[in-house]
Design a protein that fits this description.
This protein is of the alpha+beta class. Helix content is 28%, strand content 23%. The strands form three sheets. A seven-stranded mixed β-sheet has the order 9-11-8-12-10-13-14. Strands 1-2-7-5-6 form a five-stranded mixed β-sheet, covered by helices on one side.
Length: 353
């Protein structure tokens, strides 16, 4: 019998191991590993005050004009999915990052990384979807770039988009403005995008076909700001889901957040899929939803304006900011208990945006 040699260095684990000296998939998941990567490597290397806010987009002043500037890279698999494509995501993701500062997107750049061998018909479909999404969002693709990598060194198509927009006077959206008593509102059913991607990627069926909620949220934000420009912070809960967005806001604001689990708008199909797959809907990505922290005196009016908009018809109040347990998010369960909603280490569903 031959001797078997075991080398622990070659072992792999599906869970991200934080002390490993190499990049793992969890570093791109929007959770604790992503935050550590930015905090320990990128932020010290880049420096600068503009980066310090660590929001979805940077709010900048240039020549007396307040601008929002953001960039994002999209590596979703598959390229086409129910409700959208990588082209739609490339527009809506960056437009939404700008919208979370209150800005209306004006111009985008677009960089394509194409893998040798990808069909031109596929590239054409993606480009047309991207152009249509840009027109629907009222934004112009003003510049771009294309690179081709050897077969086996990509996954068909990757896209990077960067965007700029103008921030209206009197609008100041950032987590440091959150105060105890603020009401937490989510614009609709959570977890839809991530479960839609998983269903088509893995060939799973859950009784009904789920479509991604991918959408540009600029017009919804405008409707909310028309009620009051004094919204405190907005976030689109993409990678890491609602849980990651709320934890980031709680940490940056130094407040606690209390959620009412029974009030979370989880569509039945998402709830059923998550139960089967062992996922928590609060950690599943969204691409057409936002979460808002709103002064209590304005919450009812803002909620009504959201529900009157097609992209906010399912909006719901889900909790509030509190003085207790600063930096921590907790959920009150229907049975009267309380559980901690922690920042995820990595991601439950990779390659969803």
């Amino acid at each position: 019998m031959s001797e078997i040699t075991l080398d622990p260095e070659t072992w792999s684990c599906p869970a991200p191991v934080r002390e490993r000296p190499r990049i793992v998939m969890g570093h791109g998941g929007g959770g604790a590993l992503s935050a550590e990567l930015v905090r320990d490597i990128f932020a010290p290397a880049y420096g600068g005050e503009a980066l310090a806010g660590m929001g979805d987009a940077a709010a900048l002043t240039l020549g007396g004009v307040r601008l929002a500037f953001s960039t994002d890279t999209f590596v979703v698999r598959p390229l086409f999915f129910p409700g959208g494509s990588i082209g739609d995501l490339a527009v809506n993701g960056t437009v939404n990052d700008l919208a979370m500062t209150g800005a209306r997107a004006a111009y985008l750049s677009c960089g394509f990384v194409l893998e040798e061998g990808v069909e031109l018909e596929v590239v054409d479909r993606v480009a047309k979807a991207l152009g249509a999404a840009a027109r629907a969002a009222g934004v112009e693709v003003a510049t771009g770039d294309t690179k081709v990598v050897e077969a086996g060194h990509g996954d068909g198509i990757f896209i990077n988009t960067a965007g700029i927009g103008l921030i209206p006077a009197g609008v100041d959206l950032r987590p440091q403005r959150v105060v105890p008593g603020d009401v937490v509102i989510v614009s609709g059913g959570i977890g839809v995008h991530g479960v839609a991607i998983m269903s088509v990627r893995e060939g799973l069926e859950f009784g009904v076909e789920l479509e991604s909620d991918c959408a540009a949220l600029g017009s919804l934000v405008e409707a909310m700001l028309a009620v009051t420009p004094d919204l405190h912070v907005l976030r689109d809960p993409t990678r890491g889901g609602l849980a990651a967005a709320l934890n980031e806001i709680a940490a940056a604001s130094g407040t606690g957040v209390v959620l009412r689990e029974r009030d979370l708008p989880v569509p039945p199909a998402v709830a059923n899929a998550c139960a089967i797959l062992g996922l928590d809907p609060m950690y599943v990505a969204n691409e057409g939803k936002l979460v808002a922290f709103v002064p209590r005196e304005s919450a009812d009016a803002v909620l009504a304006a959201m529900r009157a908009h097609p992209l906010g018809a399912g909006a719901a109040i889900i909790g509030e900011a509190v003085e207790e347990h600063p930096g921590m998010v907790v959920a009150r369960t229907p049975l009267g208990g309380t559980r901690v909603v922690d920042l995820p280490i990595g991601e439950q569903l990779p390659r969803i945006c």
